[in-house]
Amino acid sequence: MHVYRTGVLGKKLGMTQVFTDKGDRTAVTAISAGPCFVVDKLTPERNGYAAVKVGFQALPKSKKGEGKELLHRISKPELGVFAKNGLPALRHVKEVRVDAKDLEKFEVGKQIALGDVFKPMSYIDVTGTSKGKGYQGVLKRHHMPGFRATHGTHEFFRHGGSIGCRLTPGRVHKGKRMSGHMGDVKRTVQNLVLMEIDAEQNLLLVRGAVPGGKNAIVVIRNSKKKFGKPVKMKGHAEAQEKSKNPMKASKAGGTTAAKKPAAAPKK
Which helix (DSSP H) or strand (DSSP E) does residue 81 occupy? Predict the structure, then answer.
């Protein structure tokens, strides 16, 4: 059975660090996830599925004149939806699937509280656009080894090598690993740990690799695979398991190996 997950939009700010209850330092990514507003609700009777349209980040204002909002960047039908629901013009709008039973929890025109959607020390999934790397070769794009740098190799150190055969099949197979555009694609990183929630500043502190660069727009949802499961954090002492080998254990500061008794002095 498919489980719909709630979520919000956010902007990736950068990295910082937090300390756990055990005193371990953990690197986290700060995400500004609000204020997010409910722009519209999609019902199974009218649209065929249940979802919530979430809006985030107000439009920038013009630097000239009176500093009015740049409304020409949004279509008139979208402006009509915002005006109908009593919302300001929002820059980013995204549909987030939810369970039909949870539609009553969301009210159109109201702000989404982060505490109602997420809980600290829980698993989440983050979707965003990865960093663009431009046109790259096969060594960086596909981690190919390249040619050796000695014994008669000339100007072919970073080449991809042969890409096909002769008459048969007479073409290059689809999916052949070659040089090309790298990055700047939609990616979802699953099972990241939501360490802390700052409801006053609408901040989420996430442990793990969040796709995209600074100021990138991401979608944060509850985890699909580990929703509701407790988070297991390994401390510094728990991560270093003692070896069963007495020689290795003695080097790591554990139990020392048994020594032979000293021989009795000769008379």
Answer: helix 76-84
